[in-house]
Automatic annotation (TrEMBL):
This is Response regulator DrrA. It comes from Nautilia profundicola (strain ATCC BAA-1463 / DSM 18972 / AmH). GO terms for biological process: archaeal or bacterial-type flagellum-dependent cell motility; chemotaxis; phosphorelay signal transduction system. Keywords: Chemotaxis, Flagellar rotation, Phosphoprotein, Two-component regulatory system. SUPFAM superfamilies: CheY-like. The modification 4-aspartylphosphate is found at residue 54.
Length: 122
């Protein structure tokens, strides 16, 4: 699984650092962005294998980002996992093309199991 790049998009730097630490310990390369606009810039500059996406963010939130990215052919099959404290957003995110939703606070075990499952999906 190592050498896979994961884009962590969250406006809370503490959450981002925690997730980056979990990913790094498992050999993933983590790239950080603080909102959807920064995430698109990161995608232009990196080959990313999966996105972990917060919903509530300034500038461009996760729902806006999800709607936008799913219109771009280059990213249509890129796995996206939503991270949110709002359980009511789960269905909307899935309907917009998210591969999975994890309710915060994020469990390291759940996060890693979700990522492994998506990377091993046929």
């Amino acid at each position: 699984m190592s050498n896979k790049k994961v884009l962590v998009v969250d406006d809370d730097p503490i959450n981002r650092k925690l997730i980056v630490k979990i990913l790094s310990k498992k050999g993933f390369e983590a790239i950080e962005a603080g909102n959807g606009v920064e995430a698109f810039t990161a995608l232009e500059n990196n080959d990313v294998d999966l996105i972990l996406l917060d919903i509530v963010m300034p500038v461009m939130d996760g729902i806006e980002f999800l709607k936008e990215i799913k219109t771009k052919p280059a990213y249509i099959n890129l796995p996206i996992v939503i991270l949110t404290t709002d359980d009511s957003k789960k269905m909307e995110a899935k309907d917009l093309g998210a591969d999975d939703v994890i309710i915060k606070p994020v469990s390291a075990i759940e996060l890693l199991e979700t990522i492994e499952r998506l990377f091993n999906k046929p």
